[in-house]
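Look over this today:
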Amino acid sequence: KAVKRAFDPQGLLNPGKLFDL
């Protein structure tokens, strides 16, 4: 989910996405 991290690199919108590979 690199695209989501590009929009929210620090996982501010959803901290769980930070670890969502």
About this structure: Residues 11 and 18 are 5 Å apart (CA to CA). The chain is about 30% helix and 0% strand.
